[in-house]
Amino acid sequence: MRFARCRDTAQIPSSGKSVAIIGAGPAGLGAAGELICRGHKVVVYDMLPEPGGLLIFGIPEFRIPKDRIKVGIKELMDIGVEFKCGVKVGKDISLDKLIESYDAVLIATGTWRANRLNIPGEDLPGVYDALYYIINTHLIQYGYKPFNEAPDLYGKVAVIGGGLTAIDACYIAFDRGAEEVTLLYRRTREQAPAGVKEFNNLESELGVKIRELTQPLRFLGNGGHVTGIEVIKMKLGKPDASGRPRPEPIPGSEEVIKIDNVLVAAGLVATPPLDADKCGIELTRWNTIKTDEKHRTSREGVFAAGDVKHGASLIGPALKSGKDAAIYIDEYLKSGKWLYDEKEVVNV
Ligand SMILES: Cc1cc2nc3c(=O)[nH]c(=O)nc-3n(C[C@H](O)[C@H](O)[C@H](O)COP(=O)(O)OP(=O)(O)OC[C@H]3O[C@@H](n4cnc5c(N)ncnc54)[C@H](O)[C@@H]3O)c2cc1C
Asked: pTM score > 0.90 for this model?
């Protein structure tokens, strides 16, 4: 996968300007490729031990061969993009310091917090956040220290959710020791963000049992470890804010499913650097970063792109968002004009 459109920067005159990019996922990498080819110095910060974001540490190898991503990253390094990995902005270095040290900053930190179900028993041993279970599995596989423990699974595993994280969690669950996997989803596969095909593949390729229109009510534990889930059957009602039929519980349809481990994948939340609001960067009610149509935030010189700007999406939109932001950063660096207008904010 190529992130830069130039193969050599030797002939490109230097602008004398520098840009810090926070986040080395597709949005950050796409922006880095565009900015270096426009003559700017580019430094990319990432909290993970190597660049790539979810391309390397989230999406499984069978979907996206890592070698191709690594070739694209190496090309960026060869043409002068500098990577500072293992650095969490907002913890190891302040966002304010970066804003002071560079001519422009791009925030491309993605959606690294999982929604909670907020039901009893969610913190029982054996109930894992699927996103971090997947990331930790990849960190361990590549010889790095995981963020937290991700022990092997066993017996019957339930995966909860209907997005790509839930689908990939089913594959990972088998890799990590599950004997049987059941996917619980509160709507039907026709309304699932992952799409019907992914659900069908789980059934036909992996033998995953799929229980649609099923909502967990509480996790049950015996001696501490999760042993079961109380669920309720749902029916589809009138459309909700998302335009999809709203799932409604059917009273009296509660039952207990016996389970040994659970992976929860109930949606992802945008994660700007922790000190973003202290730096005058306004957030939307979904925790995404407010921007105008040119990716400008409410703080002069700071731009945002990718999933942290528009919410959890896909590789293509994130990459395009990073490249678009780079064009506006270039425009700002060359003109010195900052015309952010609160009334022009596009993602509130
Ligand atoms: C399990 C899973 C499977 C998926 N499968 C697919 C798929 O098959 N096809 C598809 O198109 N999309 C898929 N997606 C979605 C896709 O991966 C994302 O939409 C895309 O990666 C978003 O790109 P991004 O650059 O905005 O963010 P990310 O790829 O999340 O990159 C953000 C980067 O910022 C870094 N970061 C975060 N906070 C900080 C901080 N404070 N300081 C320093 N660094 C920080 C992170 O370490 C990360 O490297 C999947 C997502 C998941 C979770």
From this structure: yes
Task: Determine the Cα angle at 160 with ends 157 and 162, to 5°.
Answer: 130
Ligand 1 touching residue 306 (CB < 6 A):
yes
Beta-strand relationship, 18-22 and 41-46: parallel
CB burial of 105-125 (b: ≥16 within 10 Å; e: otherwise) equals: bbbbbbbbebeebeeebbebe
Q: How many whole angstroms separate alpha carbon 27 and alpha carbon 54?
A: 11
Ligand 1 in reach of 313 Cβ (< 6 A): yes
Structural domain containing residue 27: 18-111+270-344
* Any domain includes 7: no
pLDDT in tens, 207-240: 999 999 999 999 999 778 999 999 999 999 998 8
Q: Is the beta carbon of 69 within 6 A of some atom in ligand 1?
A: no
How far does the centroid of ligand 1 lie from the alpha carbon of residue 56, in Å?
9
Pairing of β 104-107 and β 302-304: parallel
Question: Helix, strand, or coil here: 47?
Answer: coil
- Closest listed residue to residue 311, CA positions, set 186, 168, 193, 216: 193
Cα(21) to ligand 1 centroid in Å equals 14
CATH of the domain at 39: 3.50.50.60
Residue 10 has a pLDDT of: 86
Contact 115, 126 (CB under 8 A): no
Evaluate whether residue 257 is within a structural domain: yes
Instruction: Locate the ligand 1 atom nearest the alpha carbon of residue 317 and give its number.
Output: 19
Cα 151 to ligand 1 centroid, rounded to whole Å: 23
Secondary structure of residue 159 in the 3-state scheme: strand
